[in-house]
Amino acid sequence: MLLSNKVALITGGARGIGKEIALIFAREGARIVICDVNSEELEKARIEIQGSSTDVLVFKVDVTNLKEVENMAGNILDNFGKIDILINNAGITRDALLLRLDESDWDKVIAVNLKGTFNCTKAVSKGMLKQRQGRIINIASIIGLIGNAGQANYSASKAGIIGFTKSVAREFASRSITVNAIAPGFIQTDMTDKLPQEIKEQMLKQIPLGRFGKPSDVAQAALFLASEASSYITGQVIVVDGGMVM
């Protein structure tokens, strides 16, 4: 029970990597809060997570809206009294080559992926600073490290998260709050399932371990960073990609 009595908030927690993190954290004793924009998926996730933990809260929240995020943080404090762990996982893609990329698709990806991370960190960190402890884990991407044709908006948002992680880690270190990022590679989720088969085959050839990642691979890295085992690690980017970009 690595997270016994801890309270963990996972954004974008209704499916994929976010839900897997919530499930593993619940099995390790954490009280779980997930937020998402999809009410139906939220309810499905709540039922599934309650099989591991009876203390589950769900919120339909748009992470680009600071007021909504602040209201959620207040509700969590009213119910659980604290937030020990924040996983900034909410993210979207709107892929297109730069000359075909609509301004609205640029703005939306930056708003959800990067501004959403800022909003949630700002709202949750106030309580962490008072309690002088906390774990903040931001889900970035290897695309934020190496770029990718057709994903200028996504790459910029994830690279921004990495810079944000390092800056906030320096700001919060004196209060025993660690801030780290995880950069997943090709992880099998609903988002990646939409890619053409030929693209998947090309990517598989670039992965030394010879397989695509699973949401649990990312979730286990998050568990380590959320636990006391990582108390002397901050400002780092943990790459979980099967060796793809080493």
The percent range for strand residues is 15-25%
Total beta strand runs: 7
What is the CA-atom radius of gyration, in angstroms? Answer: 17 Å
Structural class: alpha/beta
- Supply the number of helical segments: 9
Q: Roughly how many Å apart are the termini? A: 32 Å
User: The biggest beta sheet, please?
Assistant: 7 strands, parallel
Characterization of the model:
The chain is α/β, with parallel strands linked by helices and 246 residues long. The protein is 48% helix and 15% strand. It has nine helices and seven strands; from the N terminus they run E-H-E-H-E-H-E-H-E-H-H-E-H-H-H-E. It has helices at 16-27, 39-50, 66-80, 103-131, 143-146, 152-172, 190-193, 197-204, 215-226; strands spanning 7-11, 31-36, 56-60, 85-88, 134-139, 177-184, 237-240. A seven-stranded parallel β-sheet has the order 3-2-1-4-5-6-7, with helices on both faces. Helix 4 (103-131) links the parallel strand 4 (85-88) and strand 5 (134-139). It is globular, with a radius of gyration of 17 Å.
